[in-house]
Amino acid sequence: MTPKETTLESLDSAIAELKKSIDNVSDAEVKKELEKTLKNLLRAREKMNPARPFTAHYVVALPFVLIFMLVGIYYFSKILKKECR
Length: 85
Description:
- By secondary structure, this protein is mostly helical.
- The protein has two domains: about 1-50; about 55-85.
- About 80% of the residues lie in helices and about 0% in strands.
- The protein has three helices and no strands.
């Protein structure tokens, strides 16, 4: 048994079909299980094609880098002023 490769198109079609199925189901327990499955499929799609690009990490890290850089410049300028006296 070889696993089939999942493409984004097939995953999108499976998600669409599952959404239709959830709307047509009347049993609450089955509906709950289908919603769990839908959540897992959406999570799998997110992992295959992340909505947030890698540059989002730079946006988070940039303020910290700037703060450390400014603190470093401040302290090095203090050290240089003391050496010049």
